[in-house]
Amino acid sequence: IITGNGLLTAGALHALHEQQLAVPDDVALAGFDETSWSTLVQPAITVLVQPTDEIGKTAIELLLQRIANPTRPTRQVILQGELRVRGSSAARATIIQSK
Question: For the chain, what percent of residues have pLDDT higher than 90?
Answer without folding.
Answer: 86
